[in-house]
Write the structure tokens for this entry.
Amino acid sequence: MKCEETEKRNDTKKRSFFRCTYPPIRNSPER
């Protein structure tokens, strides 16, 4: 899983880490 690796060094890939950790947020009406 590249999501965990991104969380450790969430510098420029912070968005990638959030996208992987919260994939349902994209389909969420809250956003």
User: Anything to note?
Assistant: The CA atoms of residues 19 and 30 lie 15 Å apart. The two ends are 24 Å apart (CA to CA). The chain is about 50% helix and 0% strand.
